[in-house]
Design brief:
Protein name: AB hydrolase-1 domain-containing protein
CATH superfamily: Alpha/Beta hydrolase fold, catalytic domain
Radius of gyration: 19 Å
Structural class: alpha/beta
Organism: Emiliania huxleyi (Coccolithophore)
Distance between the termini: 40 Å
Length: 315
């Protein structure tokens, strides 16, 4: 717990950096509105919502709503993902906003009430209300997977399917993810292209940001967001990039494959499917259109009947 008592690392950025960032955030909001999304609030949780396209729905049971948990940069890196979801998914789409770790504004001396981090019980209550108790298909990237793991443990009745992209949630029982994210520095020279160079940019632009440091050193309880694959309440797809620098992809792969082997030895069907992409960097899935189309089609847009009874309420 030493990291919670250490002073934040100084980080100096020109105001132009935040001006460009906030301009892009505003453009992202306008783009979401053009796609049919509207901003809503449930308790202290704000989220973008696009209703189900009931007029275009084919015969048969409706698809589950899709809920996407973003990573540290908010929705900025996920334009293609959101475009494809809006195009391919006829059901409702929810995009919860987690501003305390999204780099969006210059650091403030005081946190406003709306920037107060959501506690996990509060988040679960808000998600239940947002979904009206219906089950959903969840997609989460990076630190969003930590929140998703915590939600699935505390509200398994909401889980219809899950996709974890570059997840941290399966490795939070150790300190490796925390060290890799907060402390690890790429080599000054002789680094591997592009992995170490992308890591350097990530550290300079995101990790050292004072608001991000404050979130993950003062308000984010890393071990509370851990989930063991055996505790997943639904089928899940885990997508790993071999060049990820946050959660060591080789360790995650080894742990998940050990879980799969254990299930086979006990005569059980593993809940987790694993995809490995050797050359992908952190967030590689979200820049690969073909892979995203396949996952949206095969995992996220399945009808209600594929997940049993009791979830056929409109969200």
């Amino acid at each position: 717990m030493l990291y919670t008592r250490q002073a934040l690392t100084p980080c100096h950025k020109p105001l132009l950096f935040y001006l460009v960032l906030q301009s892009n955030m505003r453009l992202t909001g306008r783009s979401l509105r053009r796609r049919g999304f509207r901003l809503h609030r449930r308790g202290n949780l704000r989220y973008w919502h696009r209703p189900a396209r009931s007029a275009r729905r084919e015969s048969g049971p409706p698809p589950m709503p899709v809920v996407f948990f973003h990573g540290v940069l908010g929705f900025l890196p996920y334009g293609l993902t959101i475009d494809l979801l809006a195009e391919m998914h006829a059901g409702a789409i929810y995009l919860p906003i987690f501003p305390t770790w999204a780099v969006a504004a210059p650091p403030s001396v005081r946190l406003s009430p709306c920037d107060r981090p959501l506690q996990l019980p509060e988040l679960v209550v808000s998600l239940r209300g947002m979904l009206c108790g219906a089950r959903a298909a969840f997609l989460a990237n990076s630190v969003g997977s930590g929140l998703l793991g915590a939600v699935l443990e505390r509200a398994p009745e909401l889980a219809g399917a899950a996709v974890f992209s570059d997840p941290i949630c399966f490795e939070l029982s150790s300190g490796d993810v925390l060290h890799n994210f907060l402390y690890a520095e790429p080599p000054c020279c002789g680094g591997r292209w592009p992995r170490d160079y992308v890591h350097a940019v990530q550290r300079a632009m995101v990790v050292l940001e004072p608001s991000v440091q404050f979130c993950f050193r003062r308000t984010f309880w890393w071990t509370h967001n851990y989930i063991h694959p055996a505790d997943l309440p639904c089928d899940a797809l885990v997508v790993l990039g071999g060049c990820d620098t946050v959660a060591d992809p080789h360790d995650v792969r080894q742990a998940l494959e050990a879980y799969q082997r254990g299930c086979v030895e006990r005569g059980e069907t593993p809940r987790v499917r694993l995809e490995w992409h050797e050359g992908w960097l952190h967030g590689g899935l979200h820049s690969d259109e073909a892979a995203q189309r396949r996952i949206i089609r095969d995992v996220l847009t399945r009808p209600w009947e594929a997940h049993g009874e009791g979830g056929q309420r409109e969200a």
